[in-house]
Amino acid sequence: MTDRNPSHRILSRWIVALAMLPLFVSATLTGLALPSPACTTPVVSETQATSTPSAAPTRSDTDGRDLFVPLDGSEDRGVVLSSRGGYVQPPVEPSPTVAPEPSETPAPATDPTEDPDLGAELFAGLLLTILPADKVVALPDYFLPDDAVLYVNTDGLKLRTGPGTDYDILRKLTYAEKVTRTAYGTGWSLVVASDGKTGYVDSKYLSAKKPAPKFPPVSAADRLRAKVVAYAKAQLGVHYELNHASPSTGFDCSGLVWYVYGKVGIKVPRSTYPYASTGVHVKLSQIKPGDVLCWDARADGIRQITHVGIYVGGGMMIHASSSHDRVQYQKVSTYSETLLDVRRIIR
């Protein structure tokens, strides 16, 4: 083979010869014999024999006593002449990296959450280290024992046979009902209801503090009834005056009812007799504030409405009393006249 760069080859050989000169001098002075030229196998230690060859030597491998000699003028390929042992370290090609063959069987999962059975077993084992066995065995996986008094914060909360919407419904719990929670898990609680039934409920509908009373929405009719009662109470103490219907001049019984209903925009009879067909009839047990109580206040044997009053709640009515000469409260059950009817004007 013809050298591509003869000058570099000659220069490299001179450098090798010059580098070897100190080694011959050192061997002569110390009485040590140089290795025999016939011996071409260098002495290699056990560590060197078993170790993995290092990468190709570079100038940074030297410590001041070794000399790197490039081959063919290359800065990446060459030999190292060692002043310590007098041998030449040949260039070493780096070993190719071989990727490991892929395993057909995937490695087992190390995260318990990836194995539900293993996770449940570990969790139960953990509980048994801190809790009595009888409190753990009967619980679903991942449930923790508890002992807390809680309240239902919604209407119709479903008490189920298990922790999930697929389980049967035992019954519905009422708003503000008190329950005792005996265990809880992720999103569900095991509770004992007020009637002693045990089941599972959605935890977000439970609260530690008893919720405020929940009042039904007020209808337009109820608001109107409240106004009637308020106007009636405003006339308390006004004196009785037959055939009058004004706070400034006085009221008779029908004049008071006519005036009060007129204040809320409802027209009613000015006299007592027509109330027999005004509005609708309701039972006394179903009476509401604002209803008109119709009485027979004459002992003449003729059954007809001769007195009216406005029911204001709590078993009381407000009426213009001729015997007491004023507008006043009267307990319905103590009024001595004959009750003929209860008429509902606001429906």
Indicate the low-confidence ranges by residue numbers: 31-64, 82-91
Series of H and E elements: HHEEEHHEEEEEEEHEEHEEEEEE
Tally of alpha and pi helices = 6
Q: Indicate the structural class.
A: alpha+beta
- The end-to-end span amounts to 121 Å
The major sheet is characterized as: 6 strands, antiparallel
CATH architectural name of the largest domain? Alpha-Beta Complex
Superfamily (CATH H level) name of the largest domain: endopeptidase domain like (from Nostoc punctiforme)
CATH topology-level fold name of the largest domain: endopeptidase fold (from Nostoc punctiforme)
Task: For this entry, give a set of tags.
alpha+beta; 22% helix; 6-stranded antiparallel beta sheet; 6 helices; SH3 type barrels; 4 domains; 347 residues
Architecture overview:
The model is unreliable at 31-64 and 82-91 (pLDDT under 50). This protein has a six-stranded antiparallel beta sheet. It contains six helices and 18 strands. It is an alpha+beta fold and 347 residues long. The chain folds into four domains: 6-89, no CATH class; 111-142, no CATH class; 149-214, SH3 Domains (SH3 type barrels, Roll), CATH 2.30.30.40; 220-344, endopeptidase domain like (from Nostoc punctiforme) (endopeptidase fold (from Nostoc punctiforme), Alpha-Beta Complex), CATH 3.90.1720.10. The longest helix has 25 residues, at 6-30.
Short account of what is shown:
The chain has 6 helices and 18 strands.
